[in-house]
Write a structure and sequence with these properties.
The protein is mainly alpha-helical. The protein is built from seven helices and no strands. Among the domains are: 31-58, no CATH class; 66-131, AhpD-like, CATH 1.20.1290. It has helices spanning 22-27, 34-42, 44-58, 66-79, 83-95, 100-114, 116-131.
Length: 138
Amino acid sequence: MSKRRPRSKSAAPAPPADKPRPAETASASPYGYAWSTWLAREDPEYAGARQPVSALSIGPGKELSVKHREMVIIAILAFRGREDDVVAHMRRAIDHGATKRELLEAIQAAAVPGGGPTLSEGVKALMGLESAGAFKKK
């Protein structure tokens, strides 16, 4: 494996962990992933370079809404057994108008090629969100 790229000479010293730099917030994950914030602090250049691709992938598309893009991501994450990530992406889908029924149907569709473990991951995530009150009318 190759070594990590060295920081550019103009990089400022790292701020205290409780004070994010502007590069961190600009490249931070909309899902609250701690690894994304850490990456932005450790290598703001790399995190900044990833941001446009992420924005194209998880932002509104020409035809697919954020809600529908999130459902595609949720299906893949459920297949991969990433329950915490499924929950994070379900929360964002809910923020963009997804209902519990829509999320359930997306998981059911993913279970055809993905099998029982995919269904289980998705249903467990939905159960957790339901327990947390994520589907209550605001």
